[in-house]
Design brief:
The complex is a heterodimer of chains A (331) and B (98).
Chain A (H helix, E strand, L loop, with lengths): L2 H23 L3 H21 L3 H35 L14 H7 L8 H20 L8 H6 L9 H9 L1 H20 L15 H23 L7 H18 L9 H25 L11 H25 L9
Helix pairs in contact in A: 1-2, 2-3, 7-8, 8-11, 8-12, 9-10, 10-12, 11-12
Chain B lengths: L1 H26 L3 H24 L5 H32 L7
Helix pairs in contact in B: 1-2, 2-3
Classes of the chains: A mainly alpha (331), B mainly alpha (98).
Chain lengths: 331, 98
């Protein structure tokens, strides 16, 4: 441990905290966005110092790059909206190159001129060549497979992926569930939802198909959840299937569906995280470590958590699609 | 050996249908002809891919699952195509379609 490196780390830490504080305290939105990007880059540097270069790359690309660009675009959009309000007249903004219809427009534009073909072809060949080379030279590392295999008998399940997700690395899965929940809370904090304005499609075809498809989706979802203990499957996949069925129902009959009452909906949405946390805390108290299980209880507890997580994920997906708090819910 | 050869041939034939359908989606002038290209080509293409995969299946249960996947995609794809066509019939084409 080098004195200079310790000094560097301390300066980096102070910089991260300082930039974060300046970013939150800034009243100028543009300055806040620039500080946020700086914060992301400093954070990426911190990941490099923690010897996690993959996460550093992800942080630099997603945290600082893409999110920063999105925030800047949003800021520009906000400014034009505010200017419009102030001047009191609507002026149509020029079509921006990143808008939702950009892809459609690009597809309909006349084909590109011939001189762009050669660079495009070269680019495609270079990227393709790099991909093939990367695939060719994969390191012969065995990874963690032997470790997982050696501990399969105490995991409580028969499928290594489920064993890793819900036993050996339950911490990651717990945090993923929490992030899904936080995403929904973020959407809800933006306001109450209006009923989806689109009228349901007339005619018997859509309701008829849904009458066939939704039961199949429910059976498939439960099967995928159950299969998770011995084959590929599990809570996230099952929740996605059930959530898709729910979204189809919402889309087909937006006005005839009874609104879910607030309290049971909230209980269902938080069930996965709450149950996971309860079991994890019990493991901590009972001496198996946080999110650890007693060997004999591993299977029933994992199944219990998976069922609750499936319910929460399905409900959260539908709620995220509808977006906004449930109506008639004035808290 | 014969099963593997059949799998490769059938999946490649399916991919050709997918490519043709995608080309039609990108190049055809209006919504109806695009739907025509997309649904027909994708249904046959997926059917061929599924048929090819059936030669690799481990048993009757796997074959039935693959068949179920094809039937479900057929039902869903048909419904979606019907809805897109109906929306176009009653409301006209979307603006960006010109």
């Amino acid at each position: 441990m080098n004195v200079l490196l310790v000094l560097f780390d301390l300066v980096l830490l102070a910089g991260i905290v300082g930039v974060a504080w300046r970013c939150l305290a800034s009243t100028d939105l543009f300055r806040a966005v620039v500080l946020f990007i700086t914060f992301g880059l400093l954070l990426a540097l911190a990941w490099v110092r923690l010897e996690a270069p993959d996460i550093a790359l992800a942080e630099a690309a997603i945290g600082a790059g893409i999110t920063g660009a999105l925030l800047l675009v949003t800021l520009e959009r906000l400014r034009s909206i505010m200017a419009e309000r102030r001047s009191g007249r609507r002026h149509t903004p020029p079509p921006d190159p990143t808008g939702p219809h950009a892809l459609l427009r690009a597809l309909h534009d006349p084909p590109p001129e011939r001189r762009t073909f050669l660079p495009a072809l070269t680019f495609a060949l270079v990227v393709g060549g790099l991909l093939v080379t990367a695939l060719w030279h994969q390191p012969q590392s065995v990874g963690l497979e032997p470790v997982v295999d050696a501990h399969m008998d105490i995991s409580g399940v028969d499928h290594p992926i489920t064993a890793v997700l819900l036993n050996f690395r339950a911490y990651d899965t717990f945090l993923e569930l929490a992030i899904v929940l936080i995403a929904l809370l973020g959407a809800w904090s933006l306001g109450r939802h209006d009923l989806i304005p689109a009228r349901p499609a007339p005619g018997p075809i859509l309701p008829g198909t849904l009458r066939l498809l939704v039961p199949v989706a429910v059976v498939t979802g439960v099967y995928v959840l159950w299969a998770g203990s011995h084959a590929p499957g599990g809570a996230f996949q099952a929740g996605a299937i059930l959530g898709a069925a729910g979204i189809l129902l919402v889309l087909a009959r937006p006005r005839q569906l009874p609104m879910a009452p607030g309290t049971p909906l909230r209980l269902g949405i938080t069930a996965g995280v709450v149950l996971f946390l309860l079991v994890g805390t019990y493991g901590l108290v009972a001496g198996h470590g946080f999110l650890g299980y007693a060997d004999a209880w591993a299977y029933p507890l994992i199944i219990l958590i998976e069922v609750a997580a499936t319910l929460s994920i399905a409900l959260t997906l539908v709620a995220l699609f509808v977006a906004g708090r449930p109506a008639g819910d004035d808290t | 050996m014969i099963a593997n050869a059949l799998t490769v041939i059938l999946i490649f034939a399916g991919l050709v249908f997918f490519a043709a359908g995608t080309a039609g989606l990108l190049r055809f002038p209006d919504v109806y002809s695009r739907l025509h290209a997309l649904t027909k080509a994708d249904n046959v293409g997926l059917g061929l891919v599924i048929l090819g995969l059936m030669f690799q299946a481990g048993g009757p249960a796997d074959i039935l699952k693959l068949l179920l996947i094809w039937v479900l995609v057929l039902a869903a794809g048909t419904t979606a195509a019907h809805m897109v066509a109906q929306r176009t019939w009653t409301h006209g084409e979307f603006e960006s379609d010109r």
